[in-house]
């Protein structure tokens, strides 16, 4: 479908431009091929096919240019095909593509681990290990915590999302679409209540006391290897726990020999206006898992933790054929350099400063936004029946669909399917973010009869 004249990311006009309906005829044709070639179990938010992407736009094969407020689910934070990522990948891929780090090693892997150890919270001695996906990182964090503590139990939270492998399905809260019909699930995973201020009204201390009481009464602190939590629940709907909730859990973990794992696969790497979302609450996790935004779109994931924990595993106990692939490591180093040079933490904070007032205006005009929440460029609105906290999943889906038809890619989330989440590339040009918010407002107004 692509032609030799397909534009490069760097040459894409930074504009929203619709030349066909969404999807256009070429995408529709490819969609038909997909149906007969690709498992129906693999879904898609929009039935369009992309031939180039960069800055703040996705160009589809019909020539439509859409504004990207999703970043491929918080992955292309540095922008799609970011120049430093492209250059680093091109250089590495022409030298060697793979050796397996566990067979013969290379510098890029070590350099990424050094960067992770430097950038993650806490100035203690750290070690890292690299994998391919977020789910793999979370699984390995659990393996490491179990080896270190010689305990079995893993504590996770309502609304949590940790992946689609067997262990991480067990750790993930939501049944559809992640778990339904895929059991039985891994044992020794216990779910306790999250702090969800909009729905539970509890302060952080009360919410933490409730969770801790459940752990003490139903599991027993001495049996717990790890508490695993997203500092901001991603797929759960960008739920920011009440202030004090995370520090209380860290304190409890420290007092009871439990490994506290922050799953920052979605919230990490400048997304929230800090290198890691843990920083907003001043917590220092024992282990932190990373993936998504780390490598500008190439598959890479990391587990970073206290040296004594990370080094407690027997030699050969951690690894995988592709983990820390040299091309993915080059991409990560290009991404991290981009984040530092362009100060993408500041860019994420600026995106929040632009978005919040615009979303407040929509909330005031329509009455259907129960809460605007999140941090930095990880912002969401929870959509409710006016004046209540009752979820309105139908309106949420309708707004998303209407935005897609107008050439703005937005994603939904939330246990109740009533959260619209925004994850723009941190490099999105200001005029595109502004235009996307105007489109969003128009769809909200139209669909609520305003
Ligand atoms: C996406 C995600 C994962 C899983 O990552 P994959 O790369 O899809 O396996 C794990 N934890 C969190 C918080 C995520 O957002």
TrEMBL record:
Gene3D superfamilies: Aspartate Aminotransferase, domain 1, Type I PLP-dependent aspartate aminotransferase-like (Major domain)
Needed co-factor(s): pyridoxal 5'-phosphate
EC numbers, comma separated: 2.6.1.19, 2.6.1.22
InterPro entries: 4NH2But_aminotransferase_bac (IPR004632), Aminotrans_3 (IPR005814), Aminotrans_3_PPA_site (IPR049704), Class-III_PLP-dep_AT (IPR050103), PyrdxlP-dep_Trfase (IPR015424), PyrdxlP-dep_Trfase_major (IPR015421), PyrdxlP-dep_Trfase_small (IPR015422)
GO molecular function annotations of the record: 4-aminobutyrate:2-oxoglutarate transaminase activity
Catalytic activity annotation: 4-aminobutanoate + 2-oxoglutarate = succinate semialdehyde + L-glutamate; (S)-3-amino-2-methylpropanoate + 2-oxoglutarate = 2-methyl-3-oxopropanoate + L-glutamate
Organism superkingdom: Bacteria
Recorded metabolic or biological pathway in which this protein acts: Amino-acid degradation; 4-aminobutanoate degradation
Keyword terms, alphabetized: Aminotransferase, Pyridoxal phosphate, Transferase
CDD domains xrefs: OAT_like
Similarity comment: family membership: Belongs to the class-III pyridoxal-phosphate-dependent aminotransferase family.
UniProt protein name: (S)-3-amino-2-methylpropionate transaminase
């Amino acid at each position: 479908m692509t032609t030799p004249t397909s534009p490069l990311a760097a040459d894409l006009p930074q504009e929203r431009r619709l030349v066909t309906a969404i999807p256009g005829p070429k995408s529709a044709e490819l969609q038909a091929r997909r149906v007969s070639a690709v498992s129906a179990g693999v879904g898609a938010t929009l039935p369009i096919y992309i031939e180039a992407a960069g800055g703040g736009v996705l160009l589809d094969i019909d020539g439509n240019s859409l504004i990207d407020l999703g970043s491929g689910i918080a992955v292309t934070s540095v922008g799609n095909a970011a120049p430093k990522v492209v250059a680093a990948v091109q250089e590495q891929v022409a030298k060697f593509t793979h050796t397996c780090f566990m067979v013969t090693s290379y510098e890029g892997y070590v350099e990424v681990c050094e960067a992770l150890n430097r950038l993650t919270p806490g100035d203690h001695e750290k070690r890292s290990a690299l994998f391919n996906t977020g789910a793999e990182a979370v699984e390995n964090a659990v393996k490491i915590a179990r080896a270190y503590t010689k305990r079995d139990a893993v504590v996770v939270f309502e609304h949590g999302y940790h992946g689609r492998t067997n262990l991480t399905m067990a750790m993930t809260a939501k049944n559809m679409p992640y778990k339904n019909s895929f059991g039985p699930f891994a044992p020794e995973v216990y779910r306790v209540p999250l702090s969800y201020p909009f729905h539970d009204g509890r302060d952080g201390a009360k919410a933490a006391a409730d969770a801790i009481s459940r752990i003490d009464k139903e599991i027993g602190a001495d049996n717990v290897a790890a508490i695993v939590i997203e500092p901001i629940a991603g797929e759960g709907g960008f739920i920011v726990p009440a202030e004090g909730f995370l520090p209380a859990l860290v304190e409890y973990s420290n007092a009871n020999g439990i490994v506290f794992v922050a799953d920052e696969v979605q919230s990490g790497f400048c997304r929230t206006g800090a290198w890691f979302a843990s920083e907003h609450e001043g917590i220092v996790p024992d282990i932190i898992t990373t993936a998504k935004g780390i490598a500008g779109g190439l598959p890479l994931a990391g587990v970073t933790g206290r040296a004594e924990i990370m080094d407690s595993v027997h030699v050969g106990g951690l690894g995988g054929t592709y983990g820390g692939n040299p091309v993915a490591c080059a991409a990560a180093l290009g991404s991290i350099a981009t984040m530092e040079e362009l100060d993408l933490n500041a860019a994420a904070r600026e995106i929040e400063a632009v978005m919040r007032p615009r979303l407040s205006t929509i909330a005031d005009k329509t009455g259907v936004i129960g809460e605007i929440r999140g941090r930095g460029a990880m912002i969401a609105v929870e959509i409710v029946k006016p004046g209540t906290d009752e979820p309105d999943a139908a309106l949420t889906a309708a707004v998303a669909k209407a935005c897609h038809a107008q050439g703005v890619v937005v994603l939904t989330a939330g246990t109740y399917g009533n959260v619209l989440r925004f994850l723009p590339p941190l490099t999105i040009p200001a005029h595109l973010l502004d235009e996307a918010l105007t489109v969003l407002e128009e769809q909200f107004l139209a669909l609520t009869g305003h």
